[in-house]
């Protein structure tokens, strides 16, 4: 009964507005954030979120009005000035980009604080609102539109979201090219510098539009974390943008639910959820995740050990006087540990080797695979001597590493260049 009561209280009208405002804000930030991540300018969002304070302060001091239009103009001007000064210091004064960014945005932020303290009087400046935002209060500040009460935050952030979508659609090809290769974009007739300033203007505009809802600090996470999460999950730009928007919406929904149950700040919890989703992407991403990478490394290690075992058994067979290898001796020769044990079990199960009289021996299928490996090894040794002039005592280790990655095509190229019938540089036969 208590659970049902809590669930009914969770989905009240104000709560739905909070989710909607959070989703709109996060999505607007995520769209431009994708290009910041691709351009390796993630901290530019942090810089702009601080430096726009100077533009807001100047706009308010000049107009003494909370009207959103002059505040937006002041914020965009401050954002463009920050971008211009950062680029100028980096390009002409040879200041490293991170250092120039740090100098400019801290100076602009300090200037904004001075202007507020010196010239803006009779205004309550809520520090907590600056850091945390007031997402929980946004449903209470409304305006009547077509007979319905709409939160002012929606009327502020929704047009910015539509503007971001419109500019993104209009300049998709240009931003795509300039994000990966600015020089190519300029060669194709796109001004990479102009596109950069348009992006920075949108980031500044989005930052100001998000200021009331999520605060100047948390907006940085909204700009970067959904985009970084999408970057972990996709290597293509269009899916990356879609996934970033989906992560932004999901963060808003889950953040609100958890914040309601834990009685904490909505915007902060949405950011925590976004960070948790990023952590999950880092670990479980199907292409670049830690578990995926670990599994690929284990598979590669097993393949190398299996091939080393086959090649070793083939060389033992070549030495007619040599004693067959026992399982313990074979594992020891391959470095010991669990990998040789697992590799031997897999080869035995697949009919590549057999255990007979406590000796590991190749089957017909295993001997065919081993012959290809040894042929690749000795062809590569021959190539290193004939074409690179390496001494004999320097060719075994490189060939031992490369033999695992020589496929049929490369082996065919080597066969065309070399005389396999003459044997390898050590005088051993190169198997057919």
Structure explained in plain terms:
This protein has helices spanning 2-10, 13-38, 42-63, 68-91, 97-119, 127-132, 152-170, 172-180, 182-187, 192-233, 237-262, 266-284, 290-318, 327-333, 338-349, 364-388, 396-402, 408-417, and strands spanning 142-145, 148-151, 353-356, 359-362. With 432 residues, it is mainly alpha-helical. The chain folds into two domains: 10-284, Orthogonal Bundle (ABC transporter involved in vitamin B12 uptake, BtuC); 293-422, Orthogonal Bundle (Arc Repressor Mutant, subunit A). It has a two-stranded antiparallel sheet with strand order 1-2. A two-stranded antiparallel sheet has the order 3-4. It is elongated, with a radius of gyration of 32 Å. The chain starts with a helix and ends in a 15-residue tail after the last helix.
Domain module count = 2
Overall pLDDT score: 83
Strand arrangement across the biggest beta sheet: 1-2
CATH fold type of the largest domain = ABC transporter involved in vitamin B12 uptake, BtuC
The rounded Rg comes to 32 Å
How far apart are the first and last residues' alpha carbons, in Å?
Answer: 78 Å
Please tell me the CATH architecture of the largest domain by its name: Orthogonal Bundle
Assign the CATH superfamily of the largest domain: ABC transporter involved in vitamin B12 uptake, BtuC
Number of strands: 4
State the secondary-structure class.
mainly alpha
**Helix/strand order, N-terminal first:** HHHHHHEEHHHHHHHHHEEHHH
Query: What share of residues are in beta strands?
Result: under 5%
Largest sheet: 2 strands, antiparallel
Number of helices: 18
Percent helix range: over 70%
Which CATH first-tier class of the largest domain would you pick? Mainly Alpha
Low-confidence stretches: 1-8
GO cellular component, one term: ATP-binding cassette (ABC) transporter complex
Subcellular location: Cell membrane
Pfam family, one: Fe_dep_repr_C
Organism: Adhaeretor mobilis
